Known about the structure:
- The protein is mainly alpha-helical and 238 residues long.
- It contains eight helices and seven strands, in the order H-H-E-E-H-H-H-E-H-E-H-E-E-H-E.
- Helix 6 (164-179) links the parallel strand 3 (153-156) and strand 4.
- Helix 7 runs antiparallel to helix 8 (224-231).
Amino acid sequence: MFVTALTNIGVAIEDAREYVPVGCVESAPVNAWGRCNGGYTNLTKIVELALNNGVCRITGKQVGPKTGDARTFKSFEDVIEAYKKQMFYAIKTLANWDNLIDRTHAELMPTPFTSIADGISPTTGMDVNGPTAVFKSVCTIDHYRCPNGVIFNQKVNPAVISTPEGMRKFIELIRTYIKMGGGHIQFNIVSADTLRDAQKNPEKHRGLVIRVAGYSAFFNEIHRDVQDSIIARTEQEL
Length: 238
């Protein structure tokens, strides 16, 4: 599907066949993808800047604030303080650039439907007629016109796959979605009760990883509002 989706926007077939997964759910030809929003922070680079008064050792340029010559530091606390200042500057700069990019996108390439839903996932609480009904709804969108991928989240009760028969049905469910033209789906196979217990007793669920949107995260490390939204997702059964 991704090969066809890419050729539909003009990518040569030989390049489309060499696509690679990037970001959350995006697919792109090798050497033909660029990050136009979001951003990354190199934590070890921040350490380097903290130890070199904000000077990049590769270019020799002043890229961060002047936080002092490390040779004059009297304690490790001085290093930590320099690191915090460099990190604050890096994150503030990144946020400023992201805001500028968002404004530019809004003016030149607006995507008004982006904020309406969680990718193509149903609005929380609306998918009450079972997973196949959700699949039919989602597949009304032509996924072959979505070369940058789609985000489709579903939460499934663990009891569904607790038996060989249940696992067989689950596999067939996924295959049916693909046959219907679906391009991407991701699951949280965890009960709402487990997630609520993780909120109350985080120390008992340190290793609990959940799918948020196009990425995974430790449940205990995400904001309470995001936790609640994941708990509120419909828990599908077969």
